[in-house]
Task: inverse folding
């Protein structure tokens, strides 16, 4: 696993990670023969420069979602600011950055990255503002169409980037991103249909399943086996091969597709079975993650624990959703949607940003170590998991209090780190 962290959290220099040579199980026989053996020299710098404004937008949507949630306004608005806005924008920036970095590929053209970034953001603004203001259905539909354009542009950028890459070990993760974007296109299309023709329980269930378990879930599941190693400074687990990851992805796609179709045709009992199958796929994704050593856990701390805990909450929410579907109840319409949003995906995004923000800021080993220290929050980790537990047992007020602590703590720490690039200090 390529490691971008040169120092320990306390600032002490660690031993360099062993290089992946030509005999590595990930590299042997998996280079693109049509490409040189070295990636573009400026790929990381350009990719980070493209990621920073995307994450700024994502953080803006996340902050807006938190404010709307605290204000007690319509839950629909907060969730659409959170998922299509904050989380999908974070996915768009980070997925491209990881593809460039791990595939040793040139960064894509800035104009196309900007186009897809602002298409997603503008689409979400039109959708949320249009519905909140009771604007004509055409406005909301146009927002949905623009959002889909952003997803399609991102898919094109991922394909172009991975094809230009030197390393082939990340191909399966990009395949999961493309599957996720296809699911998101289906989910957004169903949203447009409901905006124009009116909602129905069956279409609404299919819409949220395609978006939350497809667009977001497939992305998370495809990233965790790779990214958890980066966060914890560890190699990929020996049991984790491209072939096994591809089988897991195929299983998830089949279970997800069947769930969406069964829910759309109002067959909740059948969907309950396939949702259980989807939850099994989450278990596989966690199994493929490298098991950290005690030293790695001590160094990474809450940001690595958050990836594991968030994955477990995600699986729990899916199993609870399957139980609701088997009982012919409205799925993802109450407490389990909040658990998924906060303790599941929200916690995974929180842990990921605790690693990414200091890295994107840069500034040399000392500033990098200071950034990791700043984002190392056991208070935030405890608060988000308390929130998940209280929301799961039907205690929304206690859950809201824990969420407030988590959000405030995270916002202060993110502000202290910032999203502006710092140059390395000149050594005399």
Result:
């Amino acid at each position: 696993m390529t490691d971008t962290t040169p120092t320990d959290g306390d600032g002490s220099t660690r031993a360099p990670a062993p290089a992946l040579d030509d005999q590595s199980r990930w590299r042997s026989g998996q280079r693109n023969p049509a490409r040189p053996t070295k990636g573009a020299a400026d790929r990381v710098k350009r990719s980070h420069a493209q990621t920073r404004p995307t994450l700024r937008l994502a953080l803006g949507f996340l902050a807006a979602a938190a404010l709307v949630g605290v204000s007690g306004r319509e839950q629909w608005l907060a969730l659409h600011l959170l998922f299509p806005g904050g989380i999908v924008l974070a996915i768009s920036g980070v997925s491209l950055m990881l593809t460039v970095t791990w595939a040793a590929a040139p960064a894509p053209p800035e104009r196309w990255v900007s186009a897809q970034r602002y298409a997603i953001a503008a689409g979400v603004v039109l959708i949320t503002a249009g519905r909140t203001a009771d604007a004509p259905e055409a406005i909301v539909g146009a927002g949905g169409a623009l959002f889909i354009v952003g997803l399609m542009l991102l898919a094109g950028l991922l394909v172009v980037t991975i094809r230009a890459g030197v390393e082939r070990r990340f191909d399966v993760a990009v395949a999961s991103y493309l599957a996720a974007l296809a699911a998101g296109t289906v989910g957004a299309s169903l949203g447009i249909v409901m905006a124009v023709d009116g909602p129905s329980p069956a279409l609404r269930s299919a819409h949220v399943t395609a978006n939350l378990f497809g667009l977001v879930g497939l992305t998370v599941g495809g990233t965790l086996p790779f990214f958890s190693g980066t966060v914890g400074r560890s190699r990929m687990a020996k049991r984790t091969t491209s072939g096994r990851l591809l089988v897991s992805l195929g299983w998830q796609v089949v279970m997800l597709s069947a769930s969406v179709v069964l829910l759309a045709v109002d067959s909740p009992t059948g969907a309950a079975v396939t949702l259980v199958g989807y939850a099994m796929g989450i278990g596989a994704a966690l199994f493929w993650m490298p098991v950290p050593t005690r030293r790695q856990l001590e160094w990474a701390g809450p940001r690595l624990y958050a990836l594991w805990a968030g994955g477990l909450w995600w699986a729990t929410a899916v199993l609870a959703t399957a139980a609701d579907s088997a009982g012919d109840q409205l799925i993802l319409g109450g407490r389990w949607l909040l658990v998924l949003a906060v303790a599941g995906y929200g916690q995974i995004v929180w842990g990921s940003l605790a690693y990414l923000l200091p890295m994107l800021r840069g500034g040399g080993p000392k500033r990098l170590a200071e950034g990791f220290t700043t984002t190392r929050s056991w208070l935030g980790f405890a608060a988000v998991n308390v929130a998940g537990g209280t929301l799961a047992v039907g205690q929304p007020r206690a859950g809201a209090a824990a969420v407030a602590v988590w959000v405030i703590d995270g916002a202060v720490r993110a502000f202290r780190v910032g999203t502006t690039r710092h140059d390395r200090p000149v050594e005399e």
Remarks:
- The two ends are 33 Å apart (CA to CA).
- The chain has a mean pLDDT of 85.
- The first helix runs from residue 43 to 71.
- Residues 38-168 form one domain.
